[in-house]
Design goal:
By secondary structure, the protein is α+β, with helices and mostly antiparallel strands. Helix 5 runs parallel beside helix 12 and helix 9 runs antiparallel to helix 12. The chain is elongated and about 105 Å long.
Length: about 575
C-alpha cells in the first residue's frame, strides 16, 4: 500500500521534525568562544574608544586588545541616546518611514510601509527599528579618533531641515547631517533609493587642523530581544525561525548566534566582504562595509539578557591637514527579499535560513520565483510547481501506481492463501512470494517516489516559513494569506477526501482489522493536522493528492482491464 505508507511516513517525519526543532530550542550547544582579533595599525583607535549608552553601568569588555590608548568620550546616559535628547528628522520614502536623531545621526525608528503586522490591521506596519525603551532597536554609526575629537554616536549633529520626503518623480533622497569640533568637520550623508531598503551612508571628514588625523569609522546595531514567542510550529511557525545576531566574513563565512550565546562570551571576527546583522523572522537589519575593506566585527551582550550589540569597525585611516577622508558603508533595513539582499553583499542571502533542507528549498524557491514571474500569483505558482514536480516524477509514480494496482488485483488470491494456511505464516509468506514472483509484482516498487516527496514536502515548508515574498501572499477567494492556515479549512477537507479515495484504490487491508482502522482514520487525522499548516503548503499537498488520485485511478483501470 504505497500511498498509505506515504501518509504514515509524512506523519512520522512531521513528528520527528518537531521533536528535533524543540530539542534545538532547548538543548542546542552553545557556540564556541572565538579567539581575540588583534589590530596591528599603530595609533589605531580601539573598540573601547566607542562610547557606550550605559545607565550607570559598564558593559563587559569586548576582549579585543589593541595597541594605543584611545581618548574615550564620557559615556552618556542610555535615555539620552533614544529619547528626546536630540531633535528628530523624519524621512519618508515609498517603502520606509524613518526617524533620524541628531544625537549621533542614528536611525532610531524604521517602519516598513508595505508590510502590515497582520492583514486584519493593515494600518499597523512592521517596525524594525524603535526608540521605545521596551522594544529598543537602533542603527548607530560614528567616527572615533585618538588624535582628534570623535564624531561618535553620542555627539550632536545639525541638519538642514527636519523633514525629508522622496518626491513622486525622484529616484533618490539625500539627507545630510554635519558636526564640527577641534578643527574637524564630519558630514554624515544618508542616501535612500526608490523601491529599495538599502540605505547608503557616507561619513566625510575634513581635517582643518594642523595635525594629521588618525581614526576609524564604525557602525553598530543595538537592540533589546523581543518577547519570546509561544506556541507550536503549527500554530506559530515563527517560534522556530532564527532570532539573533549574524556575522559574516569571507574567511569565516556566515555564523549566527542566539542572544543567549552572547551572555557568557563576546564574539569577534575579522576579514573582508564582512557584514554584521540582527536577524529575525522574515526581516534583517545589517551594516555592510565595502567588500574590499577589512572589517573587525563583534557581537556582545551589553547588558546580559536585556541589550545586545553587533558592531563593525574599519581599519585606521590617516587624513593629512587640509585633506578629506571618506568612510562609505551600507545599511539594509527591511524584508529578506532575495532580489535586494543577494546582490548587496556576499553571503547575506544566508539570512534566509532554510535549515537542513537548504539545497532543496533553494531549488524550490527558484522555481517558484520563475513561475511567479509568469503568473503574478504565488498561489498559482505553487499549483504549477506541483504539476511540474508531478511531471518530473511521472514515470516513478506510474511504476508505484502500477505496482499498487497489481497488488490490489492479487488481493483475492492472497486472501485465499490466508484461508488455506491459517496461522502458518511461514508457508503463507512463501506462497505469497511465489505469486509475486510469477506475476512480476514488487511490493516495494513504489517506495522511491514516496521517499522523493518527503524532502520536497519539508523543503516547501521552509520556503513558506522563511521566504518573505510569500508572507501574507494572496491566492484567491477565501485564501488571502498563503503563509497562514486556511481560514475555512477547505483545503484540508479536500485533501482528506482525496486521501480517502486513494485508500479505496489501494489493496484492501480488510484481513487486518488494525490496519483497516488506521487507514480509515488517516484522512481525518491528516485533515486535522493540515488545518494548522500554512495554506500554501496544504495547497501543494492537496493539488499533489488530487493529481495522484487521478493518475492512480487511470492506471488502476488499465491494469484491471488488461485481464
Amino acid at each position: 500500500m504505497p500511498n498509505s505508507r506515504l501518509f504514515l511516513l509524512i506523519a512520522l517525519g512531521a513528528c520527528a521534525f518537531l521533536i528535533y526543532q524543540q530539542w534545538q530550542l532547548d538543548y542546542a550547544p552553545q557556540a564556541p568562544a572565538a579567539a581575540p582579533v588583534v589590530q596591528t595599525v599603530d595609533d589605531a583607535p580601539t573598540a573601547e574608544a566607542i562610547p557606550e549608552a550605559a545607565q550607570n553601568t559598564t558593559e563587559p569588555a569586548a576582549d579585543i586588545p589593541t595597541p594605543g590608548v584611545a581618548q574615550t568620550p564620557t559615556a552618556q546616559p542610555e535615555a539620552a541616546i533614544y529619547s528626546d535628547a536630540g531633535d528628530i528628522i523624519t524621512v519618508q520614502t515609498d517603502v520606509l518611514d524613518l526617524k533620524i536623531s541628531t544625537r549621533g545621526g542614528a536611525i532610531v525608528e524604521a517602519t516598513l510601509r508595505d508590510y502590515p503586522v497582520k492583514l486584519k490591521n493593515p494600518d499597523t506596519k512592521v517596525e524594525l527599528l524603535s526608540s521605545n525603551p521596551a522594544t529598543l532597536f537602533l542603527a548607530q554609526s560614528g567616527i572615533v579618533s585618538n588624535t582628534h575629537p570623535s564624531a561618535d554616536h553620542t555627539q550632536t549633529f545639525s541638519a538642514q531641515q527636519s523633514s525629508y520626503v522622496l518626491g513622486g518623480s525622484d529616484e533618490e533622497l539625500v539627507v545630510p547631517l554635519s558636526w564640527s569640533a577641534g578643527g574637524t568637520t564630519v558630514t554624515k550623508t544618508y542616501r535612500f533609493t526608490r523601491g529599495s531598503y538599502v540605505v547608503g551612508l557616507e561619513q566625510a571628514l575634513r581635517n582643518d587642523s594642523d595635525q594629521e588625523w588618525i581614526g576609524s569609522d564604525y557602525q553598530q546595531l543595538v537592540r533589546r530581544p523581543p518577547p519570546e514567542v509561544s506556541g507550536s510550529a503549527f500554530s506559530n511557525p515563527e517560534r522556530y525561525s532564527f532570532l539573533g545576531t549574524g556575522l559574516y566574513t569571507t574567511e569565516g563565512k556566515y555564523e549566527k548566534f542566539d542572544f543567549e550565546d552572547l551572555d557568557d562570551k563576546a564574539i569577534s571576527r575579522s576579514g573582508a566582504s564582512a557584514w554584521a546583522a540582527m536577524v529575525q523572522h522574515y526581516f534583517v537589519t545589517a551594516w555592510v562595509p565595502p567588500a574590499e575593506q577589512q572589517a573587525q566585527l563583534e557581537a556582545v551582550a551589553v547588558d546580559r539578557g536585556q541589550r545586545y550589540r553587533v558592531r563593525s569597525l574599519s581599519p585606521s585611516q590617516r587624513v593629512a591637514p587640509g585633506a578629506m577622508g571618506y568612510f562609505p558603508t551600507t545599511l539594509f533595513v527591511g524584508p529578506k527579499l532575495h532580489d535586494q539582499i543577494e546582490p548587496l553583499a556576499e553571503g547575506l542571502i544566508l539570512t534566509v535560513d532554510y535549515g537542513i533542507f537548504t539545497p532543496f528549498s533553494k531549488i524550490l524557491f527558484w522555481l517558484l520565483d520563475k513561475i511567479h514571474a509568469l503568473t503574478g500569483n504565488w498561489g498559482w505558482a505553487i499549483v504549477l510547481l506541483t504539476v511540474l514536480v508531478k511531471a518530473v516524477f511521472y514515470k516513478l509514480s506510474e511504476a508505484q501506481y502500477r505496482s499498487t494496482a497489481k497488488l490490489r488485483k492479487l488481493q483475492p488470491r492472497i486472501q485465499q492463501l490466508k484461508e488455506r494456511f491459517g496461522d502458518d505464516k511461514q508457508k503463507f509468506n512463501v506462497a505469497m512470494m511465489e505469486i509475486y514472483k510469477k506475476e512480476k509484482v514488487n511490493p516495494l516498487g513504489g517506495c522511491l517516489p514516496i521517499l522523493v516527496q518527503i524532502p520536497v514536502f519539508f523543503a516547501l515548508y521552509w520556503v513558506l516559513l522563511e521566504s518573505v515574498e510569500l508572507r501574507q501572499a494572496d491566492f484567491m477567494l477565501w485564501i488571502n494569506d498563503l503563509s497562514s492556515p486556511d481560514p475555512l479549512f477547505i483545503l484540508p477537507v479536500i485533501n482528506g477526501a482525496a486521501m480517502f479515495l486513494t485508500t479505496k484504490l489501494s489493496p484492501n487491508p480488510a484481513a487486518d482489522p488494525i490496519q483497516q482502522k488506521i487507514f480509515l482514520a488517516m484522512p481525518i487525522v491528516f485533515s486535522v493536522m493540515f488545518a494548522f499548516f500554512q495554506a500554501g503548503l496544504v495547497l501543494y499537498w492537496t493539488v499533489n493528492a488530487v493529481l495522484s488520485l487521478a493518475q492512480q485511478w487511470v492506471i488502476t483501470k488499465r491494469v484491471e482491464a488488461s485481464g
